Each structure stands twice: as structure tokens, then as C-alpha cells.
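Thread title: Can someone regenerate the structure for this chain?

I was given the following input by a collaborator and told the matching C-alpha cells would be attached. They weren't. Posting the sequence so someone can regenerate them.
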Amino acid sequence: MSKKKLKYTGVHIKSVDAKDLYISNTYIDESQCGYKIRNKNGEINVRKFINTLDYSLDLIKLREIYQRVYRNKNFSFAKDGKEYTRHVINVTFNYSNKEFNRVRKGLYIKYGYSLADVELDDCVCVRDGELIAIQTYEPSERKDRNAEEWRERCTVHSPVDVELLGSFFEHKDGFYTAKKNIKVLNSVADIRAYLYNNGFTSDGIEYVRWKRSAGSGRVGKCLFIDKRLYGQMNKWEMCGIKIRKGAKVDLAALESYISLTTSSIIDTLEIYPENILVIDDFESKFTDTVMATRCVDGRLVTAVEECEINNSIWDGQSLLDVSMFGKYRQYGMLLLRSRFFKTCCFNTNIQQWFSDRGIVDVGQLRGFTLAEKIEDIKLITTPSNIKFLKFGTLNEWFERLDPVFGIVKHEKPTHYFNGRMVQCHYQLLNTIQLTYAEVGELLKQSFDFLRQIKTNPAVVRDYIKYQEQGIIEPSSVDSKNDIVYRLLGLNEKFAGTKLYHQFLNDLIKSVIRNLRKGHVLVRGNYSTLFGNPVEMLKQAIGAFDGSTAFEKGTVHNLNFNNGEELLGTRSPHVTIANVLLCTNHLYPEIQRYFNLTKEIVCVNSIDENLLERLSGADFDSDTMALTNNRILIAGARRNYNSFSVPTKLVKPKTNLRKFTHDGKANLDITTSVNKIGEIINLSQELNSKLWDLYNGEVANEELERIAGYYRDVSQLDVMSNLEIDSAKRENPADNTFELKKIKERHIERDEYGRHVRPMFFKYLDKDKGYYNPNRKAYRHYNTTMDFLQKQITALRLPRTNQKFLSFSEILKTPDTNNMQIDYKRAKSIIQSLRRARSEIVKIYNTPSLSKQEKYFASSAIRQEYIEQIKSYRCNDNTMYYLLTLIEQDEYSDISVLLFNTLFGAPNESFYKFIAKSKEPIGKLVENELGDIQIYGQRYSVV
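Best answer:
Regenerated them for you:
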């Protein structure tokens, strides 16, 4: 792998559960201790390297430190075109350690012993009168006896003494089975504390706890690192901050901030200390009547009240001079990360502003800078972006500042129709009061589009952005979809094949599944929030007086016309009061001093409760979906002033913990309980109940129930924000307990004790694998999302009754000469694929592997055989012969694998043969007079 390719790619790392690490490092036989990652032949098994250490400032530094410590460049190794490293391991904490642990399908081994200790006899391993291992769910029979006679005996009698099986196993119907009462020896929390304190060994390397990102912390995962690399990496990431072991510190904040450098980056940017101006943050303080949530004696209390709102109007954002954007000049923002620093930088004509205001000397600036000349100022930021200030001074940060900043991302258009469309979600639709007819009107363009997909291959080609040139270029493809993308560019006859129609049906089902989840496309985009930009420039020169030029209820976005009414929504979106209705106003001053794109929206939070309305938004690259869809706007306007904005008045809890391994373990245990999905789902159940009442005849007692629903939905909105922030800011309340109390008030059960949910959850549950009709029942509510399900169920698409072409019929037949078919080579390919299929089936039948592990391992097998087959050279007749086998019953077991492999292998002779059948195809182009209309845009096929 070339250095150039390594520069912007991450490396694959192993993911292991803590239980397996703990067990493998505490065997009775110490000579076996250590987690094994190699096969019997001594090669590293890469099938469990399912996580990635992204290209980041951490990875850049890690490579540098590795080379310094080990004095070589072998930080990683390459296999099948991918890069792997042994020096960092992702550790999950999902399982406890039991007296007997399952290590593979049905095999249980007593804690303290390894697989190497096990020799099964009649499905058991007994040593010194003690049960060491037992194979469950396999017939127990001895090879030296008549198998049928032995199995018959075993159905009545256990081959070993029942006493030896103890209370954890039993023998029944010729099988050993495990009971559910196997004793837990070490809980997940115990194992976490042990590994944090003691580390572990794997493949001869000692590992110690390193760090976890905020996202990983919420699900309990943590990175461990080669002990030899830890000291220098930790010294670097701490940015000179020294904390004595055992000292009390805000550990949640510290752990969050040292993980900033793990963020995946696309590039780096150099900014020197003398380029930076640090100005004061500003809080806009005003009163508003809101649905306020406070923490009182450890409980959340929510009620309508008039209170003071404090908006930090530039929280998370900075201004970066246009000259610094370089090759990213066409973008309006760059999200930057560095040690103890995170900010979203917006493309600004800083020097133009200074020039227009007569600022020619740094002495005229208001803030802290090391610059000596005004033209040196390239970045204007605030203390809220410099997390170092929680542990040190501004001078210290400047002294230790590394000029290399990581670029995490820039704004992007949506993937839908050249960025013109944005996707709704069920949280938004379920909080807006629409009628059944309005939902039908909202879905009309989506239904029309589905009809076009069903009948017009040119529309399908355009929608999936097929690889037109790929059909004649030998290069790897990863999935059946990639293959279809290429073949769509082959010729028009391909649309007559069964393969195409199978793909088409899958595509339509996929679009409908998305619609059922509320993913309706509407005109609009996702725009990054940019708060009071001109006011920030004024603050830099001492001209800001706390007022704003923004008219109330306006935003500035280049994607829409001046004066257009817009609807905005952010994620998470919990309630109707999270919807923003606003008017687009294009401010000339913003256009002069900021180089923005259609994907950035300037907003005002001075004297407006905007940040709480947008569910706790800030300006560290938060985005808002913006649309001018008249149906959604009309629905939102009906109740816009009827529901007070949920507002978080919960003071963050600064829990000082000891700076020790036990302190870190305790923190990670506390923050690994993630309730965000449960919170959002419960809020949408309550929204359905609220609107169901609201859409009917509302009596006085029902008004009271509606108010109760809304109060709890508002509290859930606040709880969602507390949950999201829990890895970096500990929650002073107990979200688990609060959820339980809200459920007790509102969860409905039917006569069978099943949880009654809105009908649309039936489709969400099926999609996520949570559908269980024995525990859940579904009923229709008079609410937008359930109206949507009815409309989709009633949808009828055109039928296409036709006789399919065989795949071989769409290809130009080679000169027929059976003597030229290399049957030996064809047979070799078929045999190889049957072996591959057998291995893949074995993997998917292994219950101890997760879904992700199964996918990764089976993909590795496919790639192995693709690599083998891509070197084959076959003539046209042999290629044509192989393609005809795909449709024969005799080869149905491997037909899909054969097809995928032939296309997946960048085999030059195969692609040359396919390319001979290429013919001109119809293309969809925008045309104002075109007869095809898709989401309000007209097209023609040319």
C-alpha cells in the first residue's frame, strides 16, 4: 500500500468483547494466557478486525510515535488491499463471565480453561472428576459403539453421571442442553474495572486503556492501546495538562476533550498562534413563557412558566478568512478539530471587513491575539471553543498550540436530485397536525415517482446514478447493486431481464419502506446553522452593542428566494414546538462579508428562543432541515403558538471523580446506559395520543389529558438532550427512572397484556427487527404517521406482465465453437464457488458471531475467491458458457455467487467480453418542456 494512499485512510482494528479478553488472560495454565488472534498456521486472522481507527490527528501522531518507539515502519500490515494494525483494539462490554462460557456453537468451557485444554469424549471433557467442557445440542455417541444403538440408549440415559452435569446442564432426548441459571462470576462492571486497572495481553502485546469517544462512551465501548505507545500518546493528547493520580477532576469533560483528536478527518490545515483572535462570547438574556424543565431534588419537573433565557449566540462557531480555505474555497464552512479545541469555521472576508471599517492596527481589535499586523488575523474564535480553558489559561494554550488542525468535514448538498430535495422523518411528520387528505397530497409526488420507476428504466438509471463507464472498465464491485448499476449502462435490453426486474422490485420495496418511516422527499436541504455572523465581526472591533439587524422570525439562506416562508427542523425532533417557521431574508451585509453556500443558514438567537426551539442547538456544525413545502408549513402554522417551547433549565452536574483507573471505569459504566432511542420512541407514542385526541371532539377532561401528554413530551425533549450530552456532561437526573414514571402514566396495554403502539411503529419495528406480535399490539391513531400508512397501503402501481429475457440474450453471442470452451477452467471456477458458499453458510450458522462479524467474515471469503478468479484468462466462449449456467437449475445453489464473483473480480477478459454488447441507452435530462415530471422538475429521455 502506497504512502500516498495511507495518508487519508484509516486502519482496521480488532474488536473484542471484554469478557473474552478477561477469560483469555486469566487461564489456570498461565502459559496459555493472552488473547489469540492467529490461525493454526500462524497467520493473523483478520476476520475480527471489524472496526476502523479513522484517519485522524490521533492516527497521524500514532504512526509517528510508533516509528520513534519501535524504530521501524511496521505499525500496520496490508492484506487484500486493506490496512490493519495490532497496536489498538476496540473493546466492547456486552457480556459477563460465567462459570461456564459459550465459546462457539453449543460448546461451553469452564472458566479458567481454554479451548486447547478440551478433548471431547461423548460431547464432554472431564478432568480429575470435574466437568471442564460440554458440547450441547449435538447427539452424544461414541465412535466405538453402534451409533444407532448408542443414540437410542442416550435418549433414556445420560452418557455421564447426572451429578457431574451439576445444576447448569441436563441431558434430554439424546442431547446435552444448557440451563439459563449458569452462575455469573464477574459482571460486566467487574470486568471493566479489572481491564482498566490491569490491562490485558494479546499476541505478545500488552494493552492498557486509552480513551473513548463521546459516541463510543454512550454504548460502553473503549479503545485500548499498546502499552509501549501509551505514554507518549497520552502526553501529546493532554496538551501539557498535568493531573496528579488520585486528584479530583471533571473526568467526564476531560475524557470528552481528549477524544476530540480521534475525529475522522478529510485533511489538515495549518493555523499559527499569531493568526488567531479570541473575542468574548456573548449571552443574550431575555424572558419568555416556556415549558420549562428543571431538576428539583434529583427529579425532573416540567411546567409552563415565564423565565429568563440565556442564549450563547456564537457557541461552537468561528470565522475563518477566505484566504485559509485554499482548495476548499468553494465551501462555506470547515469543521476543525485540534487538541482541546473544536469549532465550526465559516468562510469570511475578515480582511475586507477590517478594511471597510478602517481597522489597520491590531490595537483597534477587541480580544486577545499574538498578531503584530492586522493582516495576520485569519481566525476569529471565542473561549467556548477552547476546551483547554477548563484546565489551563489562554496563554498556556497559545504556547502549546500545534498549528496542524484536522478538517473533519464541510457542508454538502443532499443526495437527492442534485441537492434540491430533503428527506423528512417520522419525528417531524408525527408532530404536525395534517388531515388524511393533506397526507395524500404530501405523498403524491413520491407516488408519481414510484410509478416512473416502475415503468421507465431511464428514470431508474438516473435515480441510482449508474456507473455508465464502469461496464467497460475492469474494477472491483462490492455488491449486487453495483453490478446492476453497471449493467444499466450496457443496453436497453437489460431492462427486460429477470435480474433487472428483481432489482426493480427490491428498489421499489426499499423506497416504500423509507416512505413508511416518514422519509418523504420535499423541496429543501440540510443547512448548517450559523449564528449572528455580522454581530460576531462587530464584536471583534468593539462595535457590538448586544442588538441585531435580524428581523424577528427571519433567516438568511441562499437556497430559497427572498421572502419565502420556510419550515425548519433539527434532529432530535420531539415535539410540535421543535418546528421553526421563519421567513427567508437575504441580508446584503451578510452577502458582502461571508462566502456562504446554499447549505448554510444564518439565524438569530438574540431575544429569540431559537436554540431551545431547535432542541438544544448550538453552532458546532448543527444542521437544520429547511423546506418551503406548503403542506408542512400550513400544518405547522395551525398550532404554532399553541404549545410553549420545551426549555432546558437543568444545571449541568459537575461530578468530580478521582483521576484513577477506577474513576474512569465508574464514569464509563455510568455513561454507557443509553436511553435516547427509548426516549424518542416514547415521545412519538405520546404525540400520537395527543393528536388523536386533538383531531376529535375535545371535551374539557380531554384538554387536560392533552396538556398532560404535551408536558411529558416536552420533558422527553429535554431528556433527549441530557442523554446526548451524557458522555461529556453528567446528567443530574435519572433518565431511566423518569422514563419509567412517564410510561406508568401513559403506556396502554390490551387484554392480553401487550403494549399498544401506533400503527406506524409496526413498520418501524419490522425494519429494525423488533417486531413481536406476542408482546406488542398496534392500532390506528388519527395522526399524520398513521394516515401515511393507510395511504401507502392503498397505493397501486402499474403491473408489468412480460416474458423475461435470459441474461445471455442481452449479450452478443460469440462465434459458436464448443471446442473453444475451456470446460476445465469453468469446472474449476464452479468448484471454487461451491467451496466458498459452504464456508459462508458455516459462518452464518455460527450463533456466537454478531451480524456485523458474519458480514465481515463472509465478505473476506468472497474477496478471497474473487482474488483467485480475477487472474483467470478465459476466451469469449468460456465466458458466455459461464453466464448461461447462471440461469440453469443445476447451478441455482451458486448462481448469485457466480454472477457476483464474475462481476466482482476485475477480470480483464470478462469485461472485454461484456463490453462487446454495449449499445446506446436513453438518458434522462432536465427539460422545461419535457413530458416526465419528477418532484416538480420536468425531464426528457434523449
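The chain has a mean pLDDT of 89.
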